[in-house]
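Weekly sync, protein design subgroup
Attendees: M.S., D.O., the rotation student, P.L. (late)

Item 1: inverse folding check
M.S. brought a backbone from last month's batch and wanted to see whether the design step gives back something sensible before we order anything. D.O. pointed out we never logged the input encoding, so this time it goes straight into the notes. Structure tokens as presented (307 positions):
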């Protein structure tokens, strides 16, 4: 196969060809890469090698430079081929998504629904900032029936390729649930199981200080165990992606005071960053004030832009 090696990420090599665009091939199915221009090989130790030939063998990966000098490296020690600059500590990578979901009904009843959400990540080799938020508003016959929003920010510092520690801050509002404001802040530690285009999974948790202010009920603050899970995987490469994100809060002294929010859905890239999504949002609040439902389930069909 003739083409330019773009990168190897998550066990898949991207080739840019003049006859078929970008082709993806599993690294395990490639016998040898021979390059006209030097390619960069990043090892698990964060060391790099420059090579013009990379060969898969039973004993490991054989890397040869322009002078013909060869070196055999255990397969498990090869992290990436032609990695993105941020993996080499040279820059930051910025990714994100913005979605909207609108519904207007006119007839026997007038109903206006508006939902938007966004998420963005700034990533360098050793540091990461993750932010997300959403807003939902609903009116029926000119009566406000739903008004809630949330925003969350998180910082991760990687001490190894997988382990990180940092801090989390979240603020949210839910008028129908009598919640004027809930503030969540605390340190976290976590583990990055997977990080690639094909699949991502990270889990983090730690002690959280929670302060809740209500419109009618008594205000309260408490310490809780908090955790966050973020997962996505392409079921069909570049065509259909499953995702699941959730966060939880549990007060050790009152296990009935349990908060759990989960976003689960399928995302379909359409063209040039435009994506369509179908999502189920489940929100549970075991400590909700009297007269307020403890569970809220919402279904969304969204259109958005991803970069």
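Designed sequence read out in the meeting:
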């Amino acid at each position: 196969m003739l083409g330019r090696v773009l990168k190897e990420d998550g066990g898949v090599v991207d080739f840019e060809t003049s006859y078929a665009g970008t082709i993806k091939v599993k690294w395990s199915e490639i016998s040898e890469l021979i390059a006209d221009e030097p390619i960069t090989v990043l090892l698990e130790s964060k060391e790099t090698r420059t090579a013009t030939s990379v060969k898969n063998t039973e004993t490991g990966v054989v890397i040869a430079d322009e002078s013909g000098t060869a070196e055999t490296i255990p397969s498990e020690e090869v992290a990436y081929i032609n990695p993105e600059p941020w993996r080499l500590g040279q820059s930051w990578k910025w990714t994100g998504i913005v979605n909207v979901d609108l519904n207007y009904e006119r007839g026997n009843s007038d109903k206006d629904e508006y939902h938007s959400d966004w998420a963005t990540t700034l990533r360098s080799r050793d540091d990461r900032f993750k932010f997300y938020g959403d807003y939902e508003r609903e009116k029926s016959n000119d009566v406000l029936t739903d008004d809630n929003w949330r925003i969350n920010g998180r910082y991760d510092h990687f001490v190894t390729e997988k382990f990180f520690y940092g801090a989390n801050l979240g603020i949210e509002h839910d008028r129908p649930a009598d919640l004027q404001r809930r503030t969540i802040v605390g340190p976290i530690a976590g583990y990055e199981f997977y990080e690639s285009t094909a699949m991502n999974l990270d889990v983090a948790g730690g002690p959280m200080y929670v302060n809740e202010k209500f419109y009618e009920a008594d205000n309260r603050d408490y310490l809780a165990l908090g955790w966050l899970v973020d997962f996505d995987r392409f079921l069909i490469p570049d065509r259909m992606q499953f995702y699941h994100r959730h966060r939880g809060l549990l007060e050790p002294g009152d296990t009935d005071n349990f908060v759990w929010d989960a976003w689960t859905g399928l995302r379909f890239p359409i063209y040039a960053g435009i994506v369509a999504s179908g999502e189920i949002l489940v929100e549970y609040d075991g400590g909700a004030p009297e007269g307020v439902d403890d569970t809220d389930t919402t279904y969304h069909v969204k259109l958005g832009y991803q970069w």
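Discussion: The chain has two domains: 4-83, 93-306. The mean pLDDT is 90.
Action: P.L. to compare against the previous round before Friday.
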